[in-house]
Recover the amino acids of this structure.
């Protein structure tokens, strides 16, 4: 059985425990509130490198993914999280994503703990756009072409983005705060 099979069979609020193995697939959470728990970074590996499209998409509110490695697709984003609230990503490593490794777009209340993103071909390690109340604890980025972390705004304010713990960025641009053009919404309360 694949992880996607388990997602297809799941209901809101279910927990899917994923054993140590390499899974060649993409994940569509289908808007469901799910907890997907791997056996650990480097042990549970989702390898989407031979596939196209988003590697992990369609999160439901209050979803959690933890304890795994994602190898991104060859043409798109790693984790594409948009238009949801209450998201948790914890103990995650993203490698070789074509576009931004972890992309939060129009997210309210997100918790990211112990995130590492390396070798993004065309994008940032982490991008936070039009999102509020995002807490990032212990992030490491390296060799992501556009930079480590970007906070952006376009269609809504980005507010209350809090970084704590270690912030280790190996790129020339470790943190970009981008409001371009100037008539986009404000970015406020970044600490």
């Amino acid at each position: 059985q694949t992880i996607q099979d388990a997602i297809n069979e799941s209901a809101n609020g279910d927990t899917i425990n994923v054993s140590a193995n390499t899974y060649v697939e993409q994940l569509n959470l289908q808007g469901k509130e799910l907890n997907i728990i791997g056996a650990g970074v480097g042990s549970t590996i989702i390898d989407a490198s031979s596939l196209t499209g988003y590697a992990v998409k369609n999160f439901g509110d209050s979803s959690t993914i933890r304890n795994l490695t994602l190898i991104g697709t060859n043409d798109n984003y790693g984790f594409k999280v948009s238009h949801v609230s209450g998201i948790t990503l914890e103990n995650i490593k993203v490698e070789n994503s074509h576009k931004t490794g972890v992309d939060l777009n129009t997210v309210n209340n997100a918790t990211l703990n112990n995130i590492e993103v390396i070798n993004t071909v065309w994008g940032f390690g982490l991008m936070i756009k039009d999102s509020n109340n995002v807490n990032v604890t212990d992030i490491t980025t390296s060799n992501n072409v556009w930079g480590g972390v970007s906070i952006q705004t376009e269609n809504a304010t980005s507010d209350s983005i809090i970084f704590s713990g270690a912030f280790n960025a190996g790129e020339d641009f470790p943190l970009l705060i981008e409001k371009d053009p100037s008539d986009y919404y404000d970015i406020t309360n970044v600490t």
Remarks:
- The two ends are 43 Å apart (CA to CA).
- Residues 73 and 148 are 19 Å apart (CA to CA).
